Amino acid sequence: MSSSSNASIAKRARTKAEADFATWLVMAKLGGFDDLPSSAQSFLTNYQARLETMSEAESTALAVREVYSVYYSEMGGVGAAPEPQARTATTESKLVRSQRPPGPQRGQSAARHSTRPMTRKSLPALLIFASMVALVVAFGFLAQ
Question: What's the CA dihedral at 125, 128, 130, 131 to 10 degrees?
Answer without folding.
Answer: 170
